[in-house]
Amino acid sequence: MIYCDSNPNIIMWSSEEVIIPYFSPVDKKWHRYFVDFKIKYKDTNGKVKVSLIEVKPYQKTKKPEVKSRKTKRYIQEVMEWGVNDAKWKAAIEYCKDRNWDFKIMTEKQLNG
Hints:
Layout: H1 2-6, E1 10-15, E2 19-23, E3 30-34, E4 37-42, E5 48-55, H2 72-98, E6 101-105, H3 107-111
Parallel strand pairs: 5-6
Antiparallel strand pairs: 1-4, 2-3, 4-5
């Protein structure tokens, strides 16, 4: 947030302002996805753009590897991945309709 406040190319930013409906494959119901950040900025060419940004630990951005033993932890990871994947696909479509970008950022981008 300090980065957004101090960057002269960022015109506006908000946190959890954008709400996107998505269908959960886990409970087969519609839910609301509150995207972490919406940022309106000038790119390197001076063009105004909008990005929705989700911040997640890197490990949560990868589909769990199939395991021979279906432990409770593995099942939970698969369900969490399914929900996140549904959210992100809905966000990509939402952004496509508005000519925005959707990005997932992890500690690799934030700390790098």
